[in-house]
Amino acid sequence: MSRDENARRRLSRNSPQGLVVLVLALAGLCSSFMFTLVVPIQSQLPQLLNASRDDTAWVVTSTLLAAAVITPIAGRLGDMYGKRRIVLVLLIVMILGSVVAALSTGIVGMIVGRTLQGAIVGVVPLGISIMRDVLHENRVDSAIALMSATLGVGGALGLPVSALVAENTDWHWLFWIAGALGAAVFALILWIVPVSVLRTAGRFDYIGAAGLAIGLIGILLAVSRGNTWGWTSPLTLMLALGGIAVLLLWGWFELRVHNPLLDLRVAARRPVLLTNLASIAMGFALFTSNVAYPQMLELPVATGVGLGLSLLAASLVVMPSGLVMMVLSPISGTLARTIGPRILLIAGAVSLIVAYGFSLAFSTEVWHFVVANILIGFGIGFGYAAMPMLIMRAVPPSETGASNGLNALARSLGTSTAAAIVGVVLATLSTGDGETRVPTSQAFQVSFLLGIGAAIVALVLALLIPTKPAVGKTRASLPG
Question: Rounded distance, CA 407 to CA 410, Å?
Fold first, then answer.
């Protein structure tokens, strides 16, 4: 039997499609869990690792940088060499990172481990692309909605688990558990998920990958560390302006190379461009709540703005948003087929506007935050489900991995920017001295206004997305 015949036989393998979706969704949960993994021990890291607070900040920053750089690159590699294969590679890297972090007692090993763990974020856009390749068309929208929901569900459900483990066992167990989860997902994908043999011909764009990585690292470092280094410091400005310059040069190069890392002409199509811009705004709106709500819940009652909850209790208050996203995923798929993903994105943006408007008026009782997080769950559940559907309807099959990777990057830019800007607001509008400074009520009000502003931007962009994007055709080939 020829190689092409073997490839087609693997593609037509009658895998239980429900199990395929479940396993890929589990991989997505594993991905988002990596970002809440260290939250329960973040304030203790200087003591645990015998390092300064500036140094331990890299435990979070390194994961963010790795995720942003690897996601679009992994998407292109998946298009060219097989999406399932790249998912398995990313899982191996994450497992290795978990083991390194679990064995670490110092800051260097922890940063290396967390950097490697960041690779897992690329499985979400790749998983969405696999679904388009191997599922029946009637199941694709619901499956994509579930996979997209894992971006919020994993964090909302993973935070209480991380808090419970950190409060009752040695903190190294957080990473052993992450490694075991990654190993289980690896085995399940190898066993259940069929090989997607749709490939893009050509050579991998190594220069484009390096240029994108350098530009993104410069900008994200400036955004994530600007509050510490100073927004007008020479280092921050050099990284920000240098990153922008590199990305402009990278874009010029990508438009001229024969096999670009990202086809910018596809990315510049109106539905794709507007969806990615809306993704930045939605990511900002999501992470504003992730930064502001837990702080309000955990601050002491004596501050006048906090509710004095423990981390575990606060994470349980935030958890309803993840549960709502999970419940919405099959509904979102059905709605997408009937009213279209654009309307879903509009509904998600409206729900976020209502959520932050509610928080502006009511934020003094625990139930206020439960209601707000339920509304956030509706907003992100609909919005995050709609965005990859809009992308998939606007790009050719051979571009799904790279295009979904770019969309995931857009969401990451939004969350990174929110973390930096909301962090500055909460630090600037604060009261007290030194380590005892706490955000004021005005700081949280401004944060909620920023969340509303981002959601309004997402709403306007969603309204401008064409209702019937035309998908171009790009040559794809089977391996062989």
Answer: 5
CATH of domain 268-467: 1.20.1250.20
* Whole-number Å distance between alpha carbons of 239 and 234: 9
316: left (phi over 0), alpha (psi -120 to 50) or beta: alpha
Q: Give pLDDT, residue 461.
A: 95
Q: What is the largest CA-CA distance in the chain?
A: 75
Strand pairing report for 438-439 and 430-431:
antiparallel
Checking if the pLDDT of 475 tops 50, the result is no
Distance (Å, whole) CA 389 – CA 405: 13
Selecting from 3.30.420.40, 3.40.50.620, 1.20.1250.20, 1.10.10.10, what CATH number does the domain 8-203 have?
Answer: 1.20.1250.20
Helices (H), 193-269: 206-229, 234-254, 264-267
**How far apart (Å, rounded) are the C-alpha atoms in residues 359 and 94?**
37
Cβ-proximal residues to 58 (8 Å cutoff; 6+ apart), any chain: 107, 111
Chain segment 389-441, per-residue pLDDT in tens: 888 888 877 677 778 778 888 888 888 788 778 888 887 888 876 666 788 89
DSSP summary character for residue 82: -
439 pairs with which residues across the strands? 430
| Neighbouring C-beta atoms of residue 467, cutoff 10 Å | 8
Owner of token pair 């992470």: 287
Which tokens in the block code for residue 76?
């292109």
Query: Can you give the pLDDT at residue 452?
Result: 95
pLDDT at 374 over 90: yes
| Alpha-carbon span 90 to 251, nearest angstrom | 26
One-letter amino acid for residue 231 of the chain = W
Q: What is the pTM of this model?
A: 0.81
Q: What end-to-end distance do the CA atoms of the chain give, in Å? A: 13
Does position 7 have pLDDT exceeding 70, yes or no?
no
Q: How far apart are CA 179 and CA 174, in angstroms?
A: 9
Beta bridge partners of 199: 477
Secondary structure class of 364 (helix, strand, coil): coil
- 197 pLDDT above the threshold of 80: no
When pLDDT is cut at 50, 70 and 90, the band that residue 6 belongs to is low
